[in-house]
Amino acid sequence: MADPLLQKLPTHRIPVQAPHAEPTVSGWYSTSGPELAAVPMKGDVSCDCLVIGGGWMGLHAARRYAELHPDACVLLVDAGRIGDNASGRCMGFVIDLAHNLRKRDFVEDIKGNKEELFVNLDGIAYIRSAVEEHGVGCDWDPQGKYHSAATAHGINDLGRFSKALDRLGQKHRWVDLPEIQSITGSRHYIKAIHHPGTILLQPAKYLKNAARQLPKNVTVHENTPIVAVQFGKPRHVFETPTGIIKSAKVIICASGYLTRFGFFNNRAIPLYTFASMTRQLTASELASVGQQNAYGLIPANSFGTTARRTRDNRLFLRNVYAYARDFKTTAQDVERARIQQQVAFERRWPELSHIGFEASWGGLLTLAQNGGMVFGELGENVYGAAFCNGTGVARGAAFGKAVAEVAAGLSSPVIEILKGRARPSRPYPRLITAMGVRIATALRFKQAGAEV
Questions:
Q1: Alpha-carbon distance values, 206 to 134, 224, 252 (Å)
Q2: Is 357 left (phi over 0), alpha (psi -120 to 50) or beta?
Q3: Other C-beta atoms within 10 Å of 125: how many?
Q4: In 10 A of CB 188, how many CB atoms?
Q5: What is the distance, to the nearest Å, from the Cα of residue 424 to the centroid of all Cα atoms in its chain?
Q6: Which pTM does this prediction carry?
Q7: How far is CA 195 from CA 96, 171, 406, in A?
Q8: Is 21 exposed, middle or buried (CB count within 10 Å of its CB: 0-12, 13-18, 19+)?
Q9: Domain boundaries, the chain
């Protein structure tokens, strides 16, 4: 049977709208150390494999393809700076069993979650190998995560989550009020569940340092958007603002922007979520944020506030979801979210909240109406992975590694699982989708109450 993902490639030149510049720099990026040495892409170049997108998928796709073909010339391009792209703007949870924002108990069906766990563990192992074998620094912390509640209805949400974890055979433990308040220093939290298996890391630091440690046959060009493509034989031709790239194969790992290359048009539902970061806390201030020197808190209600205390003694808070028309957000959107995050700060650490935030930013994630994804060969010598549907660190690494293996002609249990996933369905018309997202997120945000 023919691969339902495979399609006949267009032969005409396709203009590609480049990603919009972010209105603010991510706090993760600004605290991640020296920037990568910029290598401008100029003139005409040729390569054996072009990887588009330097996030969780693209970075690991480039690494894996280069490992499998050490004599191949591999080119990795990113429209912005690696680490300050959407991947570097997440909260840095490398989650083994991903929670689903659309489910009250975060969990899907048993079979689906077992497959999800298998795929994510493969992604975690590949990230871990970069840390342990290649010395990629990223503040690696395998302590797991806390699902924390601040209200009675939040505790009920935790109860449903605990039952779901039991059905899946997942180890976890309840954390009572004295312990969670001791960990966080916050009287806001009244109960939690600790779920091991998740890794905490500094996402921008990982991405930048992993790019530095790519195999020698990979060349990286940042600030290099693709502005047009013409698929063909023996090479596909990609235009950038400063030159032409000709490549025998291409792996597109550009999240929802994959749709701008002519695949799965109008299937993406782009959302932004927002975060803020404090300055480094002083020795006296640290006494207010608990006895554990780093932690990650997932809200009991999926529209509540995610929080992290980092190894460099900062607090990060994330909440607010917004529909991202044309895949972009504005400084005004970031400011509105920052105001809500200040409210969340005051609820959790009122004695510290006067210090405010040093940085606020948004990050793009791409959903499909049916939760489907893009994975595999899209056309002759064209491959892609996209639509992570949230919680994309472990997923992204696994998807990127696996799609590179597909491009190399390999198969694996992970590849077979991903090939069996549903493809992104066509959502409602954009106006209806945008209105629906706004109404649904506003309602869920209000229902979350003090969990925000």
A1: 12, 21, 21
A2: beta
A3: 13
A4: 22
A5: 18
A6: 0.94
A7: 10, 7, 33
A8: exposed
A9: 14-451
Topology given in CATH for the domain delimited by 14-451: FAD/NAD(P)-binding domain (3.50.50)
Whether residue 40 is preceded by a cis peptide bond, meaning omega within 30 degrees of 0, is no
Q: How many residues does the chain have?
A: 452
- List helix spans (H) across 140-176: 152-167
Using DSSP's 3-state secondary structure scheme, residue 1 falls into: coil
Distance of CA 446 to the CA centre of its chain: 25
Tell me the average pLDDT of the chain.
92
Query: Is beta strand 243-252 parallel, antiparallel or unpaired with respect to 382-386?
Result: parallel
Identify the pLDDT of residue 180: 98
Asked if residues 13 and 230 have their Cβ atoms less than 8 Å apart, the reply is yes
C-alpha of 275 from chain center: 13
5 CB burial (10 A radius; 0-12, 13-18, 19+): middle
CA distances from 143 to 133, 138, 230, 393 (A): 20, 14, 47, 16
User: What residues contact 80, with CB distance under 8 A and at least 6 apart?
Assistant: 19, 21, 22, 222, 223
Average pLDDT on 130-134 reads: 97
Beta sheet of 359-367, edge-to-edge order? 173-175, 191-195, 145-149, 295-299, 306-309, 315-323, 269-277, 359-367
Measured between its terminal Cα atoms, the distance across the chain in Å is 48
Instruction: Specify the amino acid at residue 217.
Output: N
Q: Which residues contact 420 (CB under 8 A, 6 or more apart)?
A: none
Is-contact 287 143, C-beta < 8 A?
Answer: no
73-83: buried (b, 16+ CB within 10 Å) or exposed (e) per residue?
Answer: bbbbbbbbbbb
Q: Tokens for 186?
A: 């916050």
Residues 6+ apart with CB under 8 A from 273: 318, 319, 320, 321, 322, 362, 363, 365
pLDDT for the residue 68 = 98
Q: Which residue type sits at 200?
A: L
- Find, among 381, 368, 62, the residue nearest to 216 by Cα: 62
Give the Cα separation of 136 and 63 in Å (integer).
13
- Give the span between the Cα atoms of 430 and 422, in whole angstroms: 21
Span 62-77, pLDDT tens digits: 999 999 999 999 999 9
Does an H or E element contain 438, and which? helix 430-448
